[in-house]
Amino acid sequence: MPNQFIKFIRLYGMPIGLLVLLLLVQGIFHKVPLFSLLNIKHILLETVSIALTALGLSYIMISGEGDLSFAGMFSLLTVVFALVSNQLNSFTISFLSICATILVVNLFIVLLVTKLKFSSFIVSIAIMFMANGVEKALHQQTTLIQDPNILSFAKIEFGLPLVVLIAAIVYIFSFFLINKTKFGFSLRIVGENKNAAIEAGINTNQMKVIAYIIAGLLIALAASIESTRVGAIYEQGKYYMLPVFAACFLGSSMFVPGRVNVFGTLIGALFLGVIEKFMNMISVESYLVSIAQGAILIIAVGLVAYRHREKIEQIKL
Amino acid sequence: MIKQGSSSSKKFKIWFPSTQTGMFLALVLTVFIIFTFIIPNFNYIRIGNLNNILTDSVIPAIFAFGMGMILVVRGFDLSLGHIASMVALIIAYLMSGGIKFDPFTAILVGLTTAAAIGLLNGLLVSRMGISSFIVTLGMQFLIIGIRQIVTHGQSVYISNSLFKSLAKTQFGISNLVIILIIIAVLCYFLMELSTFGRKAHFIGENIEASRFMGIDVKQYTMFAFTLGAVLAAIGGALFAARAGGVQINSVDSKLLDAITIAVFSGVIFGRFKTMGIILVSILISMISTGMSMLGVKTEWIEFMKGFILLSSIFLAKFMNMNTELLKLQVFQKIKRSDKQWT
User: Fold this and answer.
1) pTM for this model (two decimals)
2) Which pLDDT belongs to residue B98?
């Protein structure tokens, strides 16, 4: 019995702890209606792009690689979306153009990573800085999206905003894809133990390519949603780097400890969204949000790592 | 790691650079010649401009020393730029306003802060076993928040002439260059001649083996992170002295320089080579000065630096150079320990 209890705590301790934390916070600041219906809708709408980007990153991390380039690429994609939509006034064409951009970049990265065996980390850092440079070269000040039809995309509602429903469908699909299908199983093996995957006859390179393609499409979706939601584009990716990473690593501390998993990423993203919204509502200044997010990231990952410290064979540098 | 020249004569061997160094010098020469002829009126090879290039390369080189030290123990630090910004702000703040510290105290306080942040990074990495990448990313955002509280987003001007004289030019050569030489000599002794450096290199080569040899891996990792942060802080202080004022995020972007130079030098010359880092930073300063003289915008120069970082990895791959550095295991996972519980 105690063994089972400990196991339960290991798997579900983190989400329960986060929920208790939120309720505690709500109890202390009971004047702020954090969980009112309208508020939940707002939180969901604001978290959609973080959640989708984090899901894309999760695919890459499940396949055993790491990626930083999304932070730069996200800014670049929103700018490209704004510029193209201002020229052509079409949501579809703008969306396809950013899909094409991110796919080219991601395929380039994955080519270097799989065929040439580069460290995905250093490659993606280089890509991130290059994307930042291009983004700054493309526009100097805030770019506004003018077409009202495109801007209304984020406002379509069927009970919940359309984009939230899209994200929910994508998440459910991803959950089944990764946990229930043969493809997902192979993908997880590739990330877990590359040699075992090769012995089992899995084409590791192909798996990684697919993971990067899916991630690229998800980031493109997130970027288009973000630009239609915000409407005024200026260095959007700057604020996304930490929440997205924190969502993935928070997720890796629950349900399947030590592994990035879809459901965990969702919970992590939602938690960060709620925290950010809450801090906005009690009108703390924005810098405290970044402090809180950084601290949550370090503490959450630290707890998991510390629990396993005896088992850690190498210092993880 | 570095292949020696193939000559049999010992004397000749010492003076003849290795193949990789030779190729690198050829690259520097090519860049130099190209810019000499592209830029009108031979402005590129005026003494003033060459001096400028040398001075520009100082601060990135110091950052790269810090990053290189952390790379040696197979860590990675994304918060170096932000640490430097924070220290520059602290120093500027302490010397201005109502407090008016003298420069020495201000610099001391700044460097101590940097050392404390670096120590915290190192502790979290080595004792808690968190990946250095996550720790420093989180730290980056903690610093962003904290400095906003302290400064309210305003930039600070430095009026103290003694502090500004750190970046003054005397006898035709900038004080910065002299400081770089001092730091380079210290780094050379620490990382390439002392036991500390040997052991740190050993940890980078093989953590397991070095633990069996009795090297205190955790201690060395912690020390490397602290030292890296202090070096970055020195870079930030010099930046403040040179610019005469500090904006809240003015030094953040130096992280790119640090990574580019440290990785490029690591690829060509080996893990931590003092001379290599200085040469590479001079090369990068040559390229960026030349490009800005041609009227290229700063954004594209930033793009160029990222491109250089990427191409340095290509160089490593296709010229069969030192790829050891590229085997960073930043995204390692926590070992599952199901057996312990069930």
Assistant:
1) 0.83
2) 67
